[in-house]
Write a structure and sequence with these properties.
By secondary structure, this protein is mainly α. The chain has one domain: Serine Threonine Protein Phosphatase 5, Tetratricopeptide repeat (Alpha Horseshoe), CATH 1.25.40.340. It has eight helices and no strands. Helix 2 runs antiparallel to helix 3. The protein is globular, with a radius of gyration of 16 Å. The chain binds adenosine-5'-diphosphate and magnesium ion. The site of adenosine-5'-diphosphate has 24 residues, from helix 2, helix 4, helix 5 and helix 8.
């Protein structure tokens, strides 16, 4: 059983920010095909801001909820694109899911993860199949919950989540966008991976690495 404390969550944001910087150009290129080519920049800006904001906190005197709310606020302030409020809501819901806890055990982390996915879905009102980041987040959250319920530890659960996210992002190639900017393209969005689903895979994989390695 892993115990995740506030300092570890702060390092998680640093890991995600590094992954986003490395992935920025690919994400902008994907968004260039069916959107406005800014998704990599938005994600890099958002996670860099979140990383800096949580690094400035005194981890020993801050609970996970406060850290996640700080990340949410800084992400929202840094990002003008639609991914801003979506990820800000994810972290705010994650914060609420672990309220009152000073450290997180395996099932707390899975609850946090599931709350993030639900937050994105509630905020964006996208259903699976509409070619958005929800096509990666929803199956990932479900897979994490199922893995944990079947007796897997956090590493196994987040590995299942990462795999499901990857398959979900891949599946967006065969979808027609009906939410967000790409919906203007209609059938012309077919054949291309949704950038938000692609970045979700990177976020989830970075979370897995940061919380289980
Ligand atoms: P913008 O479209 O404002 O430029 P980004 O480029 O940062 O924002 O993000 C685009 C991504 O946001 C899309 O690829 C999609 O995954 C996601 N997205 C857009 N609208 C929604 C929504 N309503 N629900 C969930 N995800 C959405
Ligand atoms: Mg965009």
């Amino acid at each position: 059983m892993t115990t995740i404390d506030t300092a570890r969550l702060a390092r998680m944001f640093a890991t995600i920010a590094t992954a986003m910087s490395a992935d920025r150009d690919r994400l902008c290129a994907l968004d260039g095909v069916i959107g406005d080519a800014d998704h990599g920049i938005a994600m890099e800006l958002g996670f860099s801001a979140a990383r800096d904001a949580v690094a400035a906190l005194d981890a020993g005197a801050t609970d996970p909820t406060t850290l996640l709310n700080t990340a949410a606020k800084s992400f929202l302030n840094a990002v003008g694109a639609s991914s801003g409020p979506l990820y800000a809501t994810a972290f705010m819901r994650g914060a609420a899911a672990v309220k009152g806890k000073t450290t997180l055990d395996d099932s707390d982390v899975v609850s946090l993860f599931q709350a993030m996915a639900k937050g994105i879905q509630d905020r964006g009102k996208a259903e699976p199949g509409e070619k958005t980041m929800i096509d990666a987040w929803a199956p990932a959250a479900q897979a994490a919950g199922e893995a944990m319920a079947s007796g897997k530890d956090l590493a196994g659960s987040l590995e299942a989540a990462a795999q499901a996210a990857k398959a979900g992002a891949e599946a967006t190639k065969a979808m027609i966008a009906t939410k967000g900017r790409a919906s203007r393209l209609g059938e012309r969005s077919l054949g291309h991976m949704d950038p938000g689903a692609a970045s979700a895979v990177t976020v989830i994989e970075a979370m897995r690495t940061a919380l289980t390695d």
